[in-house]
Design brief:
Strand content: 5-15%
Number of helices: 12
Order of helices and strands: EEHHEEHHHHEEHEEEEEEHHHHEEHE
Structural class: alpha+beta
Helix content: 40-55%
Strand order of the largest sheet: 5-6-15
Radius of gyration: 26 Å
Largest sheet: 3 strands, mixed
């Protein structure tokens, strides 16, 4: 492997579909994935010479591999996130292994949630973004639908109307997910709190996906923001104080946040009426997408429950649907039936987890409290808990069940969105 010199791209020479700008600012090609890799050369040399590796050598090699894993695309090759690959490979393999025997099914279906929870705590502790859970959710939906069409429908027990219902549910779920992914409602700097704005038309260093894009750096006036915060001492505590707003200075984004807004350290941005960062959609849930988020959960649960019932009626025709998951004799005598039965168990586990999430969301909306506000109130011991902690009432914004839902359903959908944190630097 030859060590070459990275040459920056010429501004008038556009990238072809197989070229890209690497993390060091040099122009490279997808075919040269193993060429001019100084980090890998250095690590191999030290390993051959039996010398100790540098503390950051393995991380540099991993960054190089992640940077060079690309697919051709218009105006430059796009990077492939490594977190997308495990669900695409492990999920079908594990489910097919679980369908071989009932004991293997118990082991796999017990270990699979454990691995997902471990990965969640691993990424959540590091406050990093990952596409693992989004790809797992989308591929699970696609794979379950594929097995339903290829294994259940040909048996003749599913009518055309039932197939159309499941297909419509899947399509509506994806449409609602796309609406949810449009953005949670990022907080933009207020003109009165902005000192100056600088616009760059050239590429920024170490950001290969920003080639030729325009970047704005907003420099906020902290003195003005602190002055506004001092003048707005009234806190929105209920319906009598809806006009009084407390301006909250964010030390990370360097801007003034409206009431009930919060900063997400995973997205590195402030979100209006921040509820929580959902790993299943790889985005925050805020004022702009909270309703569509609940709609996505509801559509998915209805489609999943209906699909599971159709599968169980096909593979366990003599059993009641409510008890078929617990007792279905002879289902492992045929591999196709065992595979569908295993997928029904997997879908039931996912449905149960999302049903719990939907229940918590409905309770929070009924009390006009966000998940972030509930956690802060529990930490400060200012909340009232009911039903073993399932209900958390802060007593701040609640105006009654009907008014709380009316307020939630009439929240503005089209909020002024700021640019994504990956394209805008707030200084």
């Amino acid at each position: 492997m030859r060590r070459g010199v990275h040459k920056p791209p010429e501004p008038d020479d556009p990238l072809c579909c197989c070229e890209y700008v690497d993390r060091k600012g040099g122009r490279s090609h997808v075919a040269a994935c193993c060429c001019d890799c100084e980090d890998l050369d250095e690590a191999c040399d030290r390993w051959l010479k039996r010398e100790a590796q540098k503390p950051d050598s393995l991380s540099r090699v991993a960054d190089s591999v992640a940077d060079r894993l690309r697919v051709p695309w218009l105006k430059g090759a796009k990077r492939v996130d490594l977190s997308l690959l495990p669900p695409l490979v492990l999920l079908p393999v594990l489910l097919r292994i679980a369908a071989l025997h009932v004991l293997l099914g118990v082991v796999v279906l017990t270990a699979l949630p454990g691995m997902v929870l471990w990965y969640y705590y691993f990424t959540h502790r590091k406050k990093g973004r990952t596409l693992f859970f989004l790809s797992l959710a989308l591929f699970s939906l696609a794979y379950m639908y594929f097995l339903f069409v290829t294994e259940i429908v040909p048996r003749g027990d599913v009518t055309s109307a039932q197939l159309a219902t499941v297909t419509t549910g899947v399509i509506l779920t994806l449409i609602s997910l796309v609406r949810t992914k449009r953005g949670p409602g990022y907080v933009r700097p207020h003109p009165s709190d902005t000192h100056s704005t600088v616009t760059y038309h050239g590429p920024l260093p170490d950001k290969d996906h920003l080639n030729g894009a325009r970047h704005q750096v907003v420099i906020a006036n902290r003195g003005a923001a602190l002055e506004h915060a001092a003048n707005g001492e009234a806190v929105e505590a209920g319906p009598q104080q809806t006009d009084s707003k407390r301006k909250n200075w964010c030390p990370w984004c360097k801007l003034v946040r409206p009431p009930r807004a919060g900063h997400c350290r995973i997205c590195s941005a402030c979100v209006q009426r921040l509820d929580h960062h959902c790993v299943w959609i790889n985005s925050c849930v805020g004022r702009a997408n909270h309703r569509s988020f609940l709609m996505t959960l509801l559509l998915f649960l209805l489609t999943s429950l209906y699909g599971i019932s159709l599968v169980l009626r096909t593979v366990c025709p003599r059993q009641n649907v409510l008890f078929a998951l617990l007792y279905c004799p002879g289902v492992y005598s045929q591999y196709s039936s065992a595979l569908c039965f295993t997928c029904a168990w997997y879908s039931s586990m996912v449905t149960g987890g999302l049903l719990h999430l939907l229940l918590l969301q409905v309770i929070n909306v009924s009390y006009n409290v966000t998940e972030r506000e509930a956690r802060l109130a529990l930490r400060d011991k200012t909340a009232r808990t009911l039903l073993w902690g399932l209900v958390i009432d802060t007593g701040v914004y609640s105006q009654g069940f009907r008014h709380n839902w009316a307020h939630f359903l009439t929240m503005a959908d089209h909020l002024e969105q700021s640019s994504s944190p990956a394209f805008t630097e707030l200084v």
